[in-house]
Amino acid sequence: MIKENLKTVHENISKACKRAGRNESEVTLISVSKTKPVEMLQEAYDYGERCFGENKVQELCKKYEVLPKDIAWHMIGHLQTNKVKQVVGKADYIHSVDSLHLAQAINKESEKKNLVTKILLEVNVAEEETKFGLHLADVKPLIQQMKDLHNICIKGLMTIAPYTEDPETNRQYFRDLHNLYVDISNENIDNVDMSVLSMGMTGDYEVAIEEGATMVRVGTGIFGARNYNKSE
Ligand SMILES: *Cc1c(COP(=O)(O)O)cnc(C)c1O
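# pyridoxal-5'-phosphate complex -> structure
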């Protein structure tokens, strides 16, 4: 089942790239494996997937220990500063940075471990009250405040678009984030290397690709619905 799903998702990515006149190699699929058992991740790995997304530090660390070391782990969930220590050095990317305080904590821990952590700034483009993330207007001023943090590298922007039955309703949010991404890229700021636009989930990744996404985060479309009651 997982392999068939992956085949379908890759076909859809390919078609969306064609429609947008983009090269398929510009888009990385992140298999969002939160709540799913390691056997399922292994199956996706065997199919060829190497990027996995988790939203809880503890779960990411557990899976990191038992699965192959050539996996790139993506921390996509809200991150508390007291958990930064555990995730720095394990996550290839942290997608969910939305404050100076958090960026400073990641920078400090990265300095201690003598590495540079790749981060994305999470933007709440639709300004949904229930979601984390910066407002569009706050992104550039925050980047200015982060420019002396040399043990993080700001690689791009991430958004979680509203849940919708009709992905077209999210197109404008993706477009707005892409515009900001291009705008920041043109400014050549220290420790900013804009190359990642993380947007699009199971319901809307094709539209996100048409609007410039370079990373799509697909969970349900690969692993099936999540059951939060049962501990898997
Ligand atoms: C769970 C999650 C996803 C995947 O959602 P699906 O709708 O299952 O594809 C993507 N991004 C983030 C940040 C998530 O928490």
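# post-check
The CA atoms of residues 205 and 224 lie 16 Å apart.
DSSP finds nine helices and eight strands in the chain.
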